[in-house]
Amino acid sequence: MSNTQQSTGFVYSNEILQYRFSNSHPFNQMRLKLTTELLTDLGYLKSHHIIKPRIANDTELSLIHSHDYIQAIRRASHGILSDNEAKKYGLDGDDTMQFRMMHKHSARIVGGALNLADHIMDDTVTNGCHLGGGLHHSLPGRANGFCIYNDVAVTIAYLIQKYDQRVLCIDTDAHHGDGTQWSFYTNDQALIYSIHETGKFLFPGSGRYTERGSEQGFGYTVNIPLEPYTEDDSFLETFKETIEPIVASFKPDIIVSVHGVDIHYLDPLTHLNCTLESLYEIPYIIKDLADKYTKGKVLMFGGGGYNIWKVVPRAWSHVFLALIGEKPQTGRLPDKWLTKWQQYAPCELPQTWTDEKTDYQIIPRQKEITETNLKYAKQVLSWF
């Protein structure tokens, strides 16, 4: 049922699509355009929802990132970063490389998040999403994991400094949000919760349940590592078991969440075995928590998700649908959307909102995986 008493923001502009490393790079913002047009063709996303991004300034970026790093990104934007500097700042590999005007395009991602945060805090909107953001790997002084500036971390710091908020970050991306974690590891104004595939087998290798923060931030970092090939039931059980007690204990003023959809079994970069069932349900769980604990204030980011045709548009659509109070979709996708995009897709597009599961494999170790996941979850819960 729609909630007409609230309003929702949706950060978008065509310029956001220019955050692009190369034509062959797995991080492809075309997934944002596909999702935006799907929501528009459904009739749910209207012009009044759109929040245009701005370019974040150096003072805002410096809430997390070092001055020398920001200047290095500027030099890289013009192709004048030395080889030694490129190595120092994490811009010398195949994953996170230099591209033209990268400072401007990266700062725009951050500025979109800050504009949405301002709109939420001044009650222009109750909640909102920034699906083109969620760059949670970037470190204060180093690019990392497809991420130049960490819009998630900057937004959290902005909410703390400008609005004196206690911020809870809920990160359900398959990859651990290392950049966000380390940015607040000694801070007690933000609690960083991440449920992700264990770093034993997946980038970035961090996110052990024993990583709990330090100094005054001890206890304000929460990691729930999941075994490879975790399926829907185990993911959702572990998530539900842990998240509400943590929210209730921390008592946030606002929730920030990262909705990477790379937990899906068709994602080419990860090893989890979830389906659209989990991806549809997660934003509704977080929306309900915001309604219960933060007067509805929640800012949802995108994040990972590298099957941009079969998975991302259908999954991310439900982030916005959860925020506006619409039920999960069923039936056929809009014919207009299918007709337009099938000619560009390298595969047959899904025709309905249902996960086809034609090549889904049941994992024989399901019971063992579930028991291991719950063991870590119960260990974490014992601290609250």
UniProtKB/TrEMBL annotation:
The keyword Disulfide bond does not apply. InterPro entries: AcuC, HDACs, His_deacetylse_dom, His_deacetylse_dom_sf, Ureohydrolase_dom_sf. GO terms for biological process: acetoin catabolic process; epigenetic regulation of gene expression. One of its GO terms (molecular function) is histone deacetylase activity. The keyword Ubl conjugation does not apply. Pathway: Ketone degradation; acetoin degradation. Keywords: Acetoin catabolism. Residues 25-322 form the Histone deacetylase domain. Belongs to the histone deacetylase family. PANTHER family: HISTONE DEACETYLASE HDAC1 (PTHR10625:SF10), HISTONE DEACETYLASE HDAC1-RELATED (PTHR10625). Role in growth on acetoin or butanediol. Involved in the breakdown of these compounds used as a carbon source. This is Acetoin utilization protein AcuC.
